[in-house]
Design goal:
The structure holds two protein chains of two kinds. Chain A is mostly helical. Chain A has one domain. Chain A has helices at 2-28, 36-52, 57-79, 84-104, 106-109, 131-154, 157-167, 169-174, 179-205, 215-228, 233-249, 253-256, 262-283, and strands at 115-116, 207-208. The radius of gyration of chain A is 19 Å and the shape is globular. The termini of chain A are far apart. By secondary structure, chain B is an alpha/beta fold. Helices cover 39% and strands 23% of the residues of chain B. In chain B, strands 6-7-8-3-9-10 form a six-stranded mixed β-sheet, sandwiched between helices. In chain B, strands 2-1-4-5 form a four-stranded antiparallel β-sheet, covered by helices on one side. The longest helix of chain B has 21 residues, at 117-137. Classes of the chains: A mainly alpha, B alpha/beta. The A-B interface holds A 149, 152-153, 156-158, 160-161, 163-164, 166-168, 170-178, 182, 185, 189, 231, 292-293, 295 and B 49, 51, 70-72, 75-76, 80-83, 87-93, 96-97, 99-101, 103, 105-110, 113-114, 120, 123-124, 147, 163-164, 167.
Chain lengths: 295, 252
């Protein structure tokens, strides 16, 4: 049971990193990014491939962050001047392209078979049994760093401008500030965070394949920040915790109603998760921590 | 800063909203634009500031053609507008709205934010003082901490004016700045406009409150159906029978 809880905590911490990035992009800036999983994927593959070439994680993680930010750049160039709903479509397409590249470019990614045997992050540094706790500790430290960074941004002149962009982009232009430049930074920074999340994910799961990077992941992160409270740094954290509670808690449905076969149970689980989220947003639309509309 | 508008023409479908419009505004002047609703005044503002692209014609500012420049570039060059329907940053507080308008802050650059925090906070402290003064002047001190979306229509107008004043622009285009503002404050804003003008700031003002407008402008342009139908000193323009016919409801 303890191992299970640590495992869930690690996945949760990885998701919090993703949620913090998306909250910066959507919650603070209003960028409707439907392709967040694409950044996650780029980070995971970068870290996995580098580890296969025996590159130290100390170098591989920054490279994963940097490459992911760079992957976001062309996406921003082609789409940030579009209206926000078009950006949503383009970003979704972007993440699917990333997944298809991972599926098709077998020489690089080993295609659908994926990359296996990715070494554990702390291999050789700590005893095997202590590895998960050590990874979790590191992840918590990275999360704390990311949260502090987000808070600094949110409460700064930069944060003021991106929130102004969310409220009225034309008015920002009228004051002589170029929204596109700010949006690009936000896009790349959020992507870099997702890249780091991907690197942790690859090392922790030790096997990655394209089917792990479907749009559902993006929408789970969306659920998390909506439930936690859009535009709130604390919302990204709390929302991810609630999401995990729903996703993992529903596993135990089987104990309550044991007579349903496993296959049907999986569908029922998703149904229950969906229903919980619908009810949650109906009765607490501003999210648990309150969103930017209730300051 | 001299503003020249030359043969601007713009049509929505078959309707010419701005029709071969030309005028020149000398540097440091206060010029009013009046005309019936739908005369094309706000459209002209949008073309001048780059938010709309005209079908034909040119805009020159400080002697340079800015017709191909983006709204951001034009605002940076010192020409800033307000909107007829206020575009406040509704979820930012009134104070934050004003702070956000100040140009080139180092705290808007991520590197400075993380590596030069003392410089950023020093700038913020200076800006805060300027904002305090402006809040007091605009009588918005009591709502400084309120999200701007909750202000009344008149207060939003004042906030937009305040934002423009924060930019340090050399030419300010105000679209109905007095709409919904109480008479005492209109008087004070007019005073402030005259003071800023004495420092060399030019104003191009669309306004329906003729009494308030004519007290501060040196020149009045009258637009009707996209065309300039009269220009000149306010007292003379308002006596013009063509103007009375088009705007003021027939001959008196």
């Amino acid at each position: 049971m303890e191992a299970y809880i640590i495992a869930i905590a690690i996945i949760t911490a990885i998701y919090v990193l993703l949620a913090l990035g998306l909250n910066l992009q959507y919650g603070l800036t209003g960028l409707i990014n439907f392709g967040h999983v694409g950044f996650f994927c780029v980070g995971a593959y970068t870290a996995a491939l580098l580890s296969k070439h025996e590159v130290s994680p100390l170098l591989a993680f920054p490279v994963a962050a940097l490459l992911t930010a760079l992957a976001a750049w062309p996406l921003g160039v082609v789409s940030l001047r579009l209206r926000e709903d078009y950006f949503a479509i383009v970003s979704l397409g972007f993440s699917e392209v990333v997944r298809l590249v991972a599926t098709s470019e077998r020489w690089l990614t080993n295609g659908v078979q994926g990359i296996s045997g990715i070494p554990k992050l702390m291999d050789g540094l700590v005893p095997r049994a202590a590895e998960p706790v050590a990874v979790l500790t590191l992840l918590v430290a990275v999360n704390v760093g990311a949260i502090l960074m987000m808070r600094r941004i949110a409460n700064s002149p930069f944060g003021r401008v991106i929130e102004a962009i969310r409220d009225n982009e034309e008015a920002v232009k009228s004051l002589g500030k170029d929204p596109a430049g700010f949006k690009m930074k936000v896009l790349m920074l959020g992507a870099a965070l997702a890249g780091v999340a991907g690197a942790f994910y690859a090392h922790y799961i030790s096997f990655i394949s394209p089917e792990q990077f479907v749009p559902l992941v993006t929408f789970q992160i969306w659920m998390a920040i909506i439930m936690g409270g859009v535009g709130r740094v604390s919302g990204a954290l709390v929302g991810t915790l609630i999401l995990m509670l729903f996703l993992e808690g529903s596993r135990f449905l089987h104990d309550i109603i044991p007579f349903i076969p496993d296959v049907e149970m999986a569908s029922i689980r998703l149904g229950v998760v969906g229903l919980s989220i619908v009810l949650f947003t109906l009765y607490r639309p501003q999210g648990l921590m309150g969103d930017f509309r209730r300051r | 800063m001299r503003l020249e508008i030359e043969s601007l023409t713009m049509a929505y479908g078959g309707l010419k909203v701005v029709d071969n419009l030309s005028f020149t505004m000398p540097a440091g002047d206060i010029v009013g634009v009046i005309g019936p609703n739908g005369a094309g005044k706000s459209t002209m503002f949008s073309i001048v500031t780059g938010f709309l692209v005209a079908d034909a014609g040119d805009v020159r500012f400080r002697g340079e053609t800015v017709t191909a420049l983006s709204p951001v570039a034009r605002a940076k060059s010192g020409m800033v507008r307000t909107f007829q329907v206020p575009r406040e940053f509704s979820h930012l507080t009134v104070r934050e709205n004003l702070l956000a308008a100040a140009p080139s802050q180092s705290g808007e650059r991520l590197l400075d934010l993380f590596f030069r925090p003392s410089r950023v906070s020093a700038e913020e402290a200076l800006l805060a003082k300027r904002v305090d003064g402006l809040l007091e002047f605009l009588k918005l001190g009591k709502v400084a901490g309120t999200p701007a979306g909750r202000l009344s229509g008149g207060q939003k107008k004042l906030l937009e004016l305040g934002r423009v004043l924060m930019t340090g622009a050399k030419l300010i285009l105000l679209d109905e700045p007095f709409a919904g503002v109480n008479p005492v404050l209109i008087e004070e804003i007019s005073q402030r406009i005259l003071e800023l003008n004495a420092d060399g700031v030019g104003f191009l003002i669309i306004e329906h409150d003729l009494g308030a407008l004519t007290r501060i402008v040196s020149t009045l342009h009258v637009m009707d159906r996209g065309c300039l139908i009269a220009s000149g000193r306010p007292a003379e323009v308002l006596k013009d029978p063509v103007v009375r016919e088009a705007y003021l409801g027939g001959p008196s």
